[in-house]
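Q: What structure does this chain adopt?
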Amino acid sequence: GEALKVNQELNCVTDFIHGCEDQLQKLKKQKAKGLLYGIPISIKDHINCKGHISSAGMVKFLGQVKEEDSVIVQVLKHQGGIPFVKTNIPQTMINYDCSNPIFGQTLNPLNPQKSPGGSSGGEGALIAGGGSILGIGSDVAGSIRLPSSFCGLCGLKPTGNRLRYIPTSVLFFHPPWRLQRMLGPMARDVDSLALCMKALLCQEMFQLDPTVPPIPFNEQVRLRGTPM
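A:
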């Protein structure tokens, strides 16, 4: 309900992920509770969710409904998280704003006259506006860090290959520069980022994608105040 209200004001959601209530009921019956049990999680538009499109703001991808969840969505669900919305991005995601011809312009909740940043701008706007408490964005050259900064949030671009980076519909986007494309969490505080990383760096992730180094999250390193 809150996400709907925020979306009406900021235009930050591209789709509502069906089956959320069914997933929650299924989770309640399971004995083992994951680290993200019952937490609604917003997902950047280009991350594949079964039964939904990953448009990247481009008309050519509107008819391509995905047949399976991406690895990161599978792991979030395994840990009890509930992906519930997909969020807006700039067309092709190569922009520090957040606008495309399909879903239009996303606004900054702190000042609707301003941009929320990009390319994970829908995530930034939704979380800062109070419609989500945890989201998954992606970052090549600032796409998590910029909207986090513009919207007053915390965000993390993990070390390259630390998490599974999903293959997407956006096959044309292969940056010529040597920067790692990474998925990462966005939230209102650092503790939420740490919890999300701890949940994602689990055996399920390592089994689903053997290219991810099987190194769990190191809580002691974080508590020492050195980089995660």
